[in-house]
User: Which sequence fits this backbone?
């Protein structure tokens, strides 16, 4: 018996005719998750954003991030030119720098991100590092085991 390709049902010529549209590769219904992508080109043509719109989106995303303190949000400057975002400023929290970069990177319309954000040292730790750098190591009066 020959295979029954092209017939509307699975039983070949003996099956009753199916509803219209049967007989194709999907038998009248598309698989789960199927989407016709032919109209995406027209959809994306309207998605190009101006630099001022990208600036507003990036600034809003950074301001809405719950992990960046408000004092750091106020110190981050955002500039946009041809879709490239340039971040600058000084922040106190060291986590704010990568978080602001990620918020800018994942904003709509961004082509690239340049981050020149600097992290300020905390007050007491900055003083300690300056003190330790300025002090010389004192001379030892007694010679230790490994000291010559």
Assistant:
């Amino acid at each position: 018996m020959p295979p029954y390709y092209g017939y509307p049902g699975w039983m070949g010529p003996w099956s009753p005719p199916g509803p219209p549209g049967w007989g194709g590769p999907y038998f009248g219904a598309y698989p789960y998750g199927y989407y016709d992508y032919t109209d995406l080109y027209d959809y994306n043509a309207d998605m190009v954003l101006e630099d001022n719109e990208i600036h507003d989106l990036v600034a809003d995303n950074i301001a809405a991030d719950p992990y960046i303190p408000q004092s750091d949000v106020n110190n981050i400057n955002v500039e946009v030119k041809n879709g490239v975002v340039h971040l600058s400023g000084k922040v106190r929290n060291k986590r704010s720098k990568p978080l602001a970069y990620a918020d800018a990177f994942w904003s709509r319309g961004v082509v690239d991100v340049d981050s020149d954000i600097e992290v300020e040292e905390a007050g007491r730790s900055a003083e300690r590092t300056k003190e330790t750098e300025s002090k010389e190591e004192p001379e030892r009066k007694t010679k230790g085991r490994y000291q010559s």
